[in-house]
Input
Amino acid sequence: MLKGEEGFITAILTQAVEDAKYVGDNKQDIKHKVEAINWIMGNDPQFNYYCKLLNIEPSYIQNKIKRYKETGFTSKQKPIVRLLERKNNESRCIGI
Output
C-alpha cells in the first residue's frame, strides 16, 4: 500500500473514532456519531477491510469504543437520536 493511501485510511478510521466520541448536541454531528458507531461496531465489511490494510484488528478499535464513556449518548443527544431514527424509519417505509 502506498504511504498516501495508508494516511488516508488512517484518517478515515481516526475520524470515525472521533465522531463516535462526540458529546455535543448538534444534530448533524450526532448523526455522524450514530453512523460512526454503527460502522465500527456493526461488523461493516469496509471497516474490517480498512483495519486489515493497516494491520489492526477490528476488535482493537471496537473495544476502545466500548470503553469510551463518550460513545454513549448524553441526555441532550438521546431525543435527537430518537428523532433521527424515526426519520430514518420513515424514509425506509416510503422507499427513499
Q: What stands out?
A: Helices lie at 3-20, 27-41, 45-53, 58-67, 77-93.
